[in-house]
Write a structure and sequence with these properties.
With 451 residues, this protein is mostly helical. It has one domain. Helix content is 65%, strand content 1%. The protein contains 16 helices and 2 strands. The protein has a two-stranded antiparallel sheet. It is globular and about 75 Å long.
């Protein structure tokens, strides 16, 4: 059955305004500059303490606040997202506290049981207790008691204004308590959503400190002296923007911000494709995945070796790599506080998503190909060149598979996404060209079969 809608005259409006992500970028850039230039700031204002750059984990994690607060402020006070019907909240008709106590207790039972289950899985996963995941375990462990305490007033306050307080979390709690009938499908929706949040939140927190330190620590003036340094600085900056805003997105899955997970991908293929791209399942890791390792190259810095001595070409290549990484970061920034893998949290149609349905996957894979040049090896081995190109092609194929499973999920969830899918298929700057090429190949194959 074709679930696509007829093409619209205009691209559907996005559920996230472009300004939200830009506010996060502004807050984070201000914090990055403060941390990098702290020695000069301390000297100028005669501040106490060491005069050195703020590069530690605490500075990196504070960057999450610097990123989140401007985005939340814009979302609430300008976009007024808390007033949208999609939040499931009716602020005008709050219930009495006494009328929601039983519902809230059941929901808290489901919520706390979910956290317990995630904690058990963290304990069982050995990789969570080794760097870089160890910092995430420390952070989440420190947050546990405050979250337990604050969850009680938060759940009861929210249940007073929710149109339907018996949400998937309530159904999970009802299943555990066993006093009221529950919907198994709602339980599955709850568990899938928290599986995403539990797995990816720990991963995102774990990579924030390293990326932040890599950006703030070096002398920027020295790096700006040549194409390799410029590319390294800009690429690191773009990855830090992606990491910080992405982490905020996983944390702020809250209905009052209209950023709740409405559904997680229900298809096994979608989960397999996504998990293959992240540790501990990641297939592209030179240390313990030699099958996919790009042999006899310098990895993502292979372009530096290949183009050494050709200054003009190196500057052009540095600009290309920086641009591809900027598109990748822009694709995350456009989500604002709603970034998340494997979930449906509204439909995004602006920013780079006005040109391609999957700009992050497209730009990331192009970056890998242009940066690693897998077919240009140091040992002159034709076999290694073929292997490298083949296995990097496998990685790109996994991302293509991942994109298709995400489309399948979103096409089933929202008629706006079906409208957007069709509009992009016919009018998207990048997507429409791929669609025409695909249709032409199909038509040619059909003609060949008829001959």
């Amino acid at each position: 059955m074709d679930t696509r809608a007829p093409v619209a005259d205009h691209r559907p409006p996005s559920d996230v305004s472009a300004a939200v992500g830009l506010c996060g970028v502004a807050g984070l850039l201000a914090w990055i500059c403060l941390c990098h230039f702290w020695p000069q700031i301390g000297a100028a204002f005669d501040l106490p303490g060491p005069r050195e750059r703020l590069t530690g984990p605490n500075a990196a994690l504070t960057g999450l606040l610097a990123t989140a607060l401007p985005m939340v402020a814009w979302s609430v006070f300008v976009d007024r997202v808390h007033r949208r019907p999609s939040t499931g909240i009716d602020w005008s008709n709050p219930r009495s506290l006494g009328s929601v106590v039983d519902v809230s207790i059941t929901k808290l039972a489901g919520l706390w049981a979910t956290w317990t289950l995630i904690a058990v899985l963290y304990c069982l996963g050995r990789w969570y207790w080794q760097p870089p995941y160890l910092i995430a375990m420390h952070v989440l462990g420190a947050m546990l008691l405050p979250l337990l305490v604050l969850s009680v007033p938060y759940v009861m306050w929210l249940d007073r204004v929710l149109v339907q307080p018996r949400d998937p979390c309530w159904h999970f709690g009802a299943m555990l308590i066993g006093r009221e009938p529950y919907d198994r499908n709602q339980v599955r929706i709850h568990l899938r959503a928290w599986a995403v949040k539990g797995f990816f939140t720990a991963f995102m927190i774990s990579i924030v400190p390293g990326g932040f330190a890599n950006l703030v620590t070096p002398d920027w003036g020295t790096m700006l002296a040549g194409p390799v340094g410029v590319a390294g600085l800009l690429i690191t900056l773009m990855f830090v923007l992606d990491e910080q805003i992405g982490t905020v997105g996983y944390i702020l899955t809250m209905k009052p911000l209209d950023a709740q997970i409405r559904s997680a991908n229900p298809f096994l293929a979608g989960w397999v494709a996504a998990l293959l791209c992240y540790p501990p399942f990641q297939v592209m890791s030179p240390a313990d995945r030699p099958l996919f390792y790009l042999a006899a190259t310098d990895g993502d810095n292979n372009w530096v070796r290949v183009l050494a001595g050709h200054d003009t070409l190196m500057w052009a290549w540095a600009a290309l790599l920086a641009m591809l990484t900027a598109i990748y970061a822009w694709a995350t920034v456009a989500f604002g506080i709603r970034f998340s893998n494997l979930t449906y949290r509204g439909v995004l149609t602006n920013g780079p998503y006005a040109f391609s349905r999957h700009p992050a996957y497209l730009s990331k894979n192009l970056f890998w190909w242009f940066a690693s040049m897998p077919f240009l090896v140091t040992n002159g081995s034709f076999a290694d060149a073929v292997r490298n190109a083949f296995f990097l092609g496998c990685i790109s194929a996994i991302y293509f598979w991942r994109a298709k499973t995400e489309e399948r999920h979103l096409l089933a969830e929202d008629p706006k996404y079906r409208e957007y899918w069709t509009w992009m298929e016919q009018r998207g700057l990048v997507t429409s060209r791929f669609a025409r090429l695909r249709d032409a190949l199909k038509a040619r194959r059909a003609r060949m079969l008829m001959e």
